[in-house]
Amino acid sequence: MKLVDPNGNEVTSKENKEAGQLEKQLNKKIETLLEPIMNKIKLAGGQVPQQQLMQLSSAAHQMLFNRMVYNLAIKAGVEDISELVSEDDVEELQTSLSNQLQIVDNPENAPQNQQPGQPPKNPSDQ
User: Fold this and answer.
1) How far apart are CA 83 and CA 77, in angstroms?
2) Phi, psi (deg, nearest 5) at residue 10
3) Which helix (H) or strand (E) holds 76?
């Protein structure tokens, strides 16, 4: 969790006991949120790939933060989302998200029987 002091300087949770406590509370909520899913997996005797567990954890974090923001917005009397997120914010986040994307070639879409160094065959030529 990143916090800033009144001067805008970042304060890490290691330097801020309140932030450390908030992190502990959030982690406890995430564990509670994921507990029924983890129990279901154990009872089924199955295994879930590590990647899927990471996705579940990420989704739980996102759901919790969304609910926290929603509850805070309601308490603050926010009536329109544009009071919290501007079009500039969305554009900035689009850029950030786009920069995180890595596209890799899909082997299923690769041309069949292509020799290295040769241009792809046109399917209409076959």
Assistant:
1) 10
2) -70, 135
3) helix 50-76
Quick check: is 16 in a domain?
yes
Residue 124 domain-assigned? Answer: no
Q: Which domain holds residue 83?
A: 3-90
Confidence (pLDDT) at 22: 87
pTM of the model: 0.60
Q: What SS3 state is found at 97?
A: helix
pLDDT exceeds 90 at position 112? no
Q: Where are the beta strands (DSSP E) in the chain?
A: 3-4, 10-11
Number of compact structural domains in the chain: 1
Is the pLDDT confidence value at 110 over 90?
A: no
- On whether residue 50 sits in a domain, the answer given is yes
What's the rounded Cα separation, in Å, for the pair 3 and 15?
A: 10
The SS3 assignment for 2 reads coil
Q: What is the pLDDT of residues 51-79, one digit of tens each?
A: 999 999 999 999 999 999 999 999 999 99
